[in-house]
Amino acid sequence: MTRIKIWDPVVRIFHWSLVGGFAANALFVDSESNLHLMIGYAIIMLVAVRLVWGFVGSQYARFTSFPPSANDAMAQVQDMVTGRVTIHKGHTPLGALMIYNLLFTLAVIGLSGWLMTTDMFWGVEWPEELHEVAVSWAEFSVVLHIAAVIFESIRTHVNLPRAMVTGYKDIP
After folding, report:
1. Exposed/middle/buried for 30, CB within 10 Å: 0-12, 13-18, 19+?
2. Residue 3 forms beta bridges with which residues?
3. Average pLDDT, whole number, for the chain?
4. Is 90 exceeded by the pLDDT of residue 123?
5. Which of 48, 101, 147, 150 has its Cβ near the most Cβ atoms within 10 Å?
């Protein structure tokens, strides 16, 4: 096994703070409460920090280290189907697409949630409908993300959850 430092503290704190905030708002906090709004604003701040960190952060945190690529994603799917294992130090191509999906979806959730609090859109239905659709998509994406992390951890013998806790990937 080779141990490589991959995830810096900003990425790990962002990730686990986002997990906690999203889970709280989706599962435990009343959507009509001020706490729901405060957690939503905190999530938007986390997304904003992550967007900045994607340009100025450490090597594997930068968006340039995991550009969205349909060809690379299809190659990863082919690896899965054929049983071939390609180890990625940072994000996998499918993982990269999921990150872009979640960042965009969280931004839509935050924007639509904020619009519902403004005088201009108070009582207007489409921001609330957009918010609900985006939340449902995010919940689906999170479940898919968790399943994919478990699947890829087993398939590649790289403990991805532990890497997101410790910052180190143990590569076979």
Report:
1. exposed
2. 170
3. 96
4. no
5. 101
Residues 139/41/110/125 CA torsion (nearest 10 deg): 100
- What sign results for the dihedral spanned by CA atoms 98, 72, 147, 55? negative
Q: What are phi and psi of 26, to 5 degrees?
A: -80, -30
Sequence-separated contacts (24+) of 82-88 with Cβ below 8 Å: 85/155, 85/156, 85/157, 87/156, 87/158, 87/171, 87/172
Cα atoms in the Cβ-side hemisphere of radius 13 Å centred on 71: 1
Q: Output the pTM of the full model.
A: 0.93
What CA–CA distances, in Å, run from 97 to 2, 107, 125, 160? 26, 15, 30, 17
Closest CA to 43 of 131, 162, 149: 131
Q: Is residue 92 scored above 90 in pLDDT?
A: yes
Dmax over CA atoms of the chain, in Å, equals 57
pLDDT at res. 172: 86
Nearest to 7 by CA among 155, 170, 172: 170
Q: What is the pLDDT of residue 122?
A: 86
Q: Is the dihedral of CA 103, 50, 34, 117 positive or negative?
A: negative
Q: What length is written for the chain?
A: 172
